[in-house]
Amino acid sequence: MKKTDEMRAEYRREDLGKGVRGKHHEAFKKGSNLVLLTPELAKIFPTNEAVNSALESLVGIARSAVTKKRHASGTTVKRSVANAR
Fold this sequence. Notes:
Elements: H1 13-16, H2 25-30, H3 39-44, H4 48-73
C-alpha cells in the first residue's frame, strides 16, 4: 500500500470542518484507562458504567474475602487486592 499526503477522492476538506487545536487536551490530562473488551464481554457489559459497576462489585467481594480470611486465622494476611481504594 502506497502512502501519500493526499486525501482520498471520496473525502473533501470542507466536509471535515474547522479543526480546533487542543479541543480534548483537558480531558486527556485527566487521564483515562482504555480497555478493549472481547465481543462476548461487550454484549454483557455494553456501557462503561456496566463495566465499572461489575469491577467495583468484584473489588468489594475480594476485599471481603481478604478481611474474612484475616479474621479467621487471627494473623495478618498481605492484601492481594493492591489497595484498590
